[in-house]
Amino acid sequence: MKNKIKNIKTKAVKGIIILFALLIIIPSCDDRFEEMNKNPNAITEIPDDFLFASLVRNTVKGGMGRYQEDYGAQYAHQAISNTWNKSIDQYNDFHAQGDVTEGMFREIYQSSSKYVNDIIAINSEGENVNEVRIAMAKILAVVNYAKLTDYFGDVPYFEGGMGKNEIYLPKYDPQQEIYADMVEQLKVQMDILMVADPANAYPGQDPMYYNDLDKWVRFANSFRLRLAMRARFVDPGTYEPIIIDCLGQPLIEEINQSAGIEHQDSENSELYNPWFNKTLDYQAGTYQFNVSEKFVDWLKLTSDPRLEPLVKPNPVGEFVGMPNGIVDEQIGNFTRSQISVPGDLMLEPDQPLYIMCASEIWLLRAEAALYGIGTGGDAAALYQKGVEKGMERWGIDATDYLANSSEGTLTGTDEEKFEQIATQMWVSFVPNYQEAWSNIRRTGYPVIAQRTGSLLSKGVTNGYLPKRLKYPYTVEKTLNGVNMQEAIDRMGGDEIFTPVWWDVRD
User: Fold this and answer.
1) Orientation angle between helical segments 236-247 and 358-370, nearest 10 degrees
2) Fewest CB atoms within 10 A around its CB: which of 234, 295, 331, 466?
């Protein structure tokens, strides 16, 4: 009996020892199992090189589709939708057919702004501090916010895209304050890049300038010039000195310095020109478009050689545009057998896409010279250089046009010369239609007359060209309605005829 009890005790002690050993061993086994199950080739964090490449592409292609085609092209009177989106061209309050502006906010704040903030965070910590990469990201942040504020007016800027900082209901900032910060940010970042080592930038992951920092400096300064020229009418005391400063720094001068991305004739939609459509040769991007009568007639009237690359003749070989704003009852009178569509060259799959071209900068310099801002040279010579670069972008020699066209030289009063400069910018922006519309709002040229008569829709603007987009209501108003309403009250309303801060030429 004693031996039996002794055996039981011995077994119990051994069991406790084994259990204790297991308690020690199991955690180390778990650690080993975890180590064994880790993929040594797996990426646990996204390198900011890839974030930057995505940011560049989003910045250049952002706004394609609904915002470039539906709003920009139609408000610029350069193209007209052949689908239900013609309601925009009729100056209607498009919110009646759904909240179509929500996507722009998502595109900026959930994609581009997020990439910028992630790049800044990655390059601001410990041994990874890299002010060169931060500078390049901040330049692109300005480009994206400029697009957003020029569409809507006051938008979340200083607190925009700061969800990681637990700012979920960002305040809307006045456009005046946004512009002031944007031109300052561009100055700070270009100064950093002027003395930067390209090895600290994005070698191999820069689809816009292939890590050429001189071109990045030119782009930042040129974009700063665009913003300053846009604001010069509303606040000349602030922005004319900035214009003078920009004119004294490197600017985009050649086509190969223009800001954009190249494309390939590829089966991959990420690699080909977004205006190209593989199924319908007359279809630009997602929607079917006709070319505007105003645009076609101006090119024909001035014998502009850009007519053929930008406009495709109708089936009988004629260049015929469609009038903007016609009422539904009249649309059936304009069929594809009669009306021109975007030109083949613009739609080629390997056609580059630009957000800023050399032609715009030369023409802005001509405008500054015309009004005596700075010592930037002769307005007439700068104007012709802008026309030359606008045609070179499409592979056209401008010599004959400059010598023989009514628009080849600056003539008339200063206001008439200004109209010539602004109208040339209007043409040279294609297919960056948003900027064409913004420049019409800024300058008043080309003149988009008030619509009258029964054949044209007056929409909700009494026939006047819309001045902005309405704020998104589906999500933004529901979640951030208090801050949105403050902006609406400050701006004087949330209508498509409510002008943004810099729109004062009326």
Assistant:
1) 120
2) 331
In a 10 Å sphere around its CB, with 0-12 CB exposed, 13-18 middle and 19+ buried, how is residue 493 labelled?
exposed
Side-chain half-sphere CA neighbours of 119 within 13 A: 29
User: Do 324 and 294 form a contact (C-beta atoms < 8 A)?
Assistant: yes
- With CA atoms as reference, report the closest residue to 364 among 412, 425, 288, 319: 425
Are 216 and 186 in contact by the 8 Å Cβ rule? The answer is: no
How many whole angstroms separate alpha carbon 304 and alpha carbon 404? 10
Domains belonging to the chain, first-starting first, are: 52-262+467-491 (1.25.40.390), 283-347 (no CATH)
Give long-range contacts, CB 8 A cutoff, 24+ apart: 266-272.
266/349, 270/57, 272/349, 272/350
Provide the CB-side half-sphere exposure for 392 (13 A, CA).
18
- The token duo for 321 is 């545009």
Tokens found for residue 354:
């630009």
Chain centroid, CA 9 distance in Å: 81
CB 138 within 8 A of CB 204: no
**What pLDDT tens digit does each residue of the chain (506 aa) get?**
444 444 444 444 444 444 334 333 334 444 443 443 444 444 446 689 999 999 999 999 886 766 788 899 999 999 998 776 888 999 998 654 446 678 788 888 888 999 999 999 999 988 889 999 999 999 999 999 999 999 999 999 999 887 777 888 999 999 999 999 999 999 999 999 999 999 999 999 999 999 999 999 999 999 999 999 999 999 999 999 999 999 999 999 999 999 999 999 988 878 888 888 644 444 444 346 899 999 999 999 999 999 999 999 999 999 999 999 999 998 888 887 889 999 989 989 999 999 999 999 999 999 999 999 997 689 999 999 999 999 999 999 999 999 999 999 999 999 999 999 999 999 999 999 999 999 999 999 999 999 999 999 999 999 999 999 999 887 888 889 999 999 999 999 999 999 999 999 97
